[in-house]
Amino acid sequence: MAGRMCDSIERLHAAIRRAADGDPRLDRTAKLMQGGIPKMAKKLAEEAVEVGLEAVQGERRAVVAASVDCIYHLTALWARLGVEPHEIWAEMARRERLYGIAGKAPKGGAGDCALPSVALPRRR
Fold this sequence. Notes:
This protein is mainly α.
């Protein structure tokens, strides 16, 4: 199942990258990407809040649907920033080695990540 999830996200990431240069009047992904990082980050935050609200209300089906939307917006943000899914998988593996599969890095732990910083691509 985990392999299929990674494969699905990698396919989603590739599809988002292909759609990014499409016509924003016809393609919602192109419109999202054209909105830039601040708008994309806002959409991701909205979807994450929706997942939480649906969970509090006990709306299991709505949590599933909102989670998929959240994953879409997260993956779109990765694509816009030039983050590849394999970088996420590598960081997850590194953290699993350090903290266990269900462990979380201590606050400020992101700073010890060995991922290189990248210049953000300019969008038209």
